[in-house]
Amino acid sequence: MAMISEQTNTGLLENTFMDTFDISVKKFDAIMCAFCLPFLSGNDASKLIADCAEQLNENGVIYISTMEGDESKAGFETTSFTGDSTVFFNYHELHILEKALVENGFLINNIKRQDYIEPNGTNLIDLILIGIKTSGHISAS
């Protein structure tokens, strides 16, 4: 699920909820992918980044937040927000997300890691990336 926010003529924000796999509505100045990547595989996350690149204006901003970790850890688990229920959870590695961003024309403006301690004591890492869309593709280094 993606939420697209637009400022109306009156200055209010109008929010539209869309399928993460179909955000091709029009061009935007910013797209926020706030904690949707844990519900996407690595391939789907890369496709989302490519789709966002297509929908962002030049100098547009992408915000991504996810849980950092090896994709092989993906599986059903309980979390602090699921209670006793389980959810299929994906982890993403920084270097893979960086590569997808750069290959799709983003300059990475900010990377932040933050410890997140689950109630059971498990230490997870929140990963936040902010990128700026450039006018073309940048070769990955």
Give your account of this protein's structure.
The model has no long low-confidence stretch (mean pLDDT 85). A hairpin with a 5-residue loop joins strand 1 (2-7) and strand 2 (13-18). This protein has helices at 42-55, 94-103; strands at residues 2-7, 13-18, 28-34, 56-68, 75-77, 87-89, 106-117, 123-133. With 141 residues, the chain is of the alpha+beta class. The chain contains two helices and eight strands.
CATH T-level topology: Rossmann fold
Secondary structure category: alpha+beta
Distance between the termini: 32 Å
Radius of gyration over all CA atoms, rounded: 16 Å
Give the overall shape, derived from the CA principal axes: globular
The low-confidence parts are none
CATH 2nd-level architecture: 3-Layer(aba) Sandwich
Instruction: Count up the domains.
Output: 1
Structural features:
single chain; 2 helices; four-stranded mixed beta sheet; Rossmann fold; 8 strands; 141 residues
In short:
The chain has 141 residues and is an alpha+beta fold. 17% of the residues lie in helices and 43% in strands.
